[in-house]
Amino acid sequence: MQNFWGNFWDKKSLPIILCAIFLIIYISPLSTHPLMEPDEGRYAEIAREMNESGDYVTPKLNYVKYFEKPALLYWAQAWSFKIFGENEFAARLPSSLAALLGIAVTGLLAASVYGRRAGIIAAVITGTSLLYFAIGTLDITDMLVSFFITLAMADCYIGHLRVNRRWYLVFYAAMALGLLTKGLIAVLLPGGVIFWYIVITRKWRLIPDMLYLPGIILFFAVATPWFYLVCRENPDFFNFFFIQEHFLRFATKMHSRYQPFWFFLPLIPAGLFPWTGFLFALLRKNSILRAPQSPEVKDANIFMALWFGVILLFFSASSSKLIPYIVPCVPPLAILMAADIDRSVSGAGAGRVVLWNAGINLLFVFALFAYALFGKGINETPRLELLIIAFLVSLGLVGGAVSSCRYASRDMSAAALRLCAGSLMFVFCLQTVYIPVGKERSVIDAARIVAAQKRSSEKIASYKDVLQAMPFYTKERLVLVDYMGELEFGALQEREAERRTWFPSMDEFMEEWNRGTPHILIARKRDADDFLRRGGASVRRVMDAGKYMIFFNGERD
Question: For residue 461, what are the CA distances in angstroms to 162, 350, 439, 513, 551?
């Protein structure tokens, strides 16, 4: 039996099978639920407006300038919309493809450094980790920039190992594309990792090697054109994007996203679930991290640890923290965990670690069923539906935990394979969670009512809120009443007459509403009473749309 499972890892078809499985896992949930507020609606709408206007230089959201992020994700989505139509699948596809490429790059790097089996396990750990899967199937920028950081780090280290400077061409190109995705972090983070790697390992020769002129030229050739064009057409871009959205956002609490320094520490083990037990196992005395078998492995461990540590410390020091920021931490940890598992398969037994991991997974299963039975419901989802979701999500966890424990003490190769199979089943079934959560965090019900009821003369207004996906679903610009939010910069660039029309104060809007200027107004239920006190006399019809109320001031049939 030992020989069978040992030989299984060497089968040439295994990587192909894994590629097919991951393709199914990451593509299948893309169209199962509507765009979630606020991020998915925001990015999809910017790309839609690019296609509508034909302007691919200046990003716009709700038809005003929006400079918080560069344009690469929007371009990818715009092309996706042209190919697949303006829908949820097309909006999320670029992130999903980036996640799949990131899995492949992580596996190839691990295989190059620690061996083929470690590469396969690293790919599975990356692709089945809770945080990586969740972000990889959402329409946000974080997975795309995570892929470019992963690609940059992988090519940097492979170029270093093979003493081949041509690998640095990809390193520089990846940083340039990351810069076009989310800004300077795509340069600062890889640069920080490499700096500390050189200092700690005293590999000073890397400095002239990496200052590779063709790579530097390629970096500027890729990154410069868009920044030049957007600055030429929008002189205010540089100050807003580089000063406010980089330095002030990092150093101040301007976006009200402050969290304590330790905020990400519990999120790392949670994000690596269902492999959390193997993360803690890296702290054992005989782990590959603390007891490397060769100087080459020690250097690789230092590189992976710095890759993780520099990113974690950078975002922990920032005054602006959001969970998706630490997605780039997953690949290096997955590689170290996979290398540790691989060494256990080769003879350094880790049966107790398998038991620890199984215990953590079974505790999660218990908590999942407890929530389904007694927790607060999601968008009035029936308890039976929550229980069915909990059962499906638990299948892979329970199966992987029980079967891996059975083999852990006598055949670690078989145990590792069962852990991989269980984790793949876990993330495939995890997509069922998107159905109730997607409904809870979407404006789709309100958008459908508005699209069906709207007359050509009516404007759509949002009361004290930015409903990001409403323009995407209705293909109409939104009037934002008494609220600008993240559109404040773009709104203030508008002419006064335009600003009063599309970003009116409460008094300005109520004057238009009570005068009978045709509007459909959407308000969260918590704000509905406040609106009715101000303009209820002019309401001609009210419709319920879940979390929202829809008001009409024109006569309806």
Answer: 59, 60, 21, 10, 10
Compute CA distances 530 → 51, 424, 463, 536, whole Å: 37, 48, 10, 9
Which amino acid makes up residue 18?
A: L
**What is d(CA 503, CA 485) in angstroms, rounded to the nearest whole number?**
11
Q: pLDDT per position in the chain (557 positions), as tens?
A: 445 445 666 777 888 999 999 999 999 999 999 999 989 999 999 999 999 999 999 999 999 999 989 999 999 999 999 999 999 999 999 999 999 999 999 999 999 999 999 999 999 999 999 999 999 999 999 999 999 999 999 999 999 999 899 999 999 999 999 999 999 999 999 999 999 999 999 999 999 999 999 999 999 999 999 999 999 999 888 887 777 765 666 555 555 556 788 899 999 999 999 999 999 999 988 899 998 989 999 999 999 999 999 999 999 988 778 899 999 999 999 999 999 999 887 665 567 888 888 899 999 999 989 988 887 767 677 888 889 998 999 988 888 888 888 777 677 788 888 899 999 999 999 999 998 888 888 999 999 999 999 998 999 999 998 899 999 999 999 999 998 888 988 888 889 889 999 999 999 999 889 888 899 999 999 888 888 887 777 888 999 988 899 999 877 66
Q: Which long-range contacts (CB under 8 A, 24 or more apart) does 98-101 make?
A: 98/136, 98/143, 98/144, 98/146, 98/147, 99/26, 99/127, 99/132, 99/133, 99/135, 99/136, 99/137, 99/143, 99/147, 100/22, 100/23, 100/26, 100/127, 100/136, 101/147, 101/151
Q: Rounded to whole angstroms, how far apart are CA atoms 194 and 212?
A: 14
Which is it for the CA torsion 345, 347, 348, 351, positive or negative? positive
Q: Tally the C-alpha atoms within 13 A of residue 271's C-alpha that lie toward its C-beta.
A: 23
pTM exceeds 0.90 = yes
Mapped onto helix, strand or coil, the DSSP state of residue 153 is helix
Enumerate the β-bridge partners of residue 459. 519
Half-sphere exposure of 281 (CA within 13 A, CB side): 27
Q: Identify the three-state secondary structure at position 211.
A: coil
The answer to whether 436 touches 386, Cβ cutoff 8 Å, is yes
Burial status of residue 543 (CB atoms within 10 A of its CB: 0-12, 13-18, 19 or more): middle
For the chain, the C-alpha Rg in angstroms (whole number) is: 26
H/E run at residue 463: strand 459-463
Burial of 16 (0-12, 13-18, 19+ CB in 10 A): exposed
Widest distance between CA atoms in the chain = 82
DSSP, collapsed to helix, strand or coil, labels residue 164 as coil
- Alpha-carbon gap, residue 59 to 513, rounded angstroms: 31
Residue 515 one-letter amino acid: R
Alpha-carbon gap, residue 131 to 270, rounded angstroms: 8
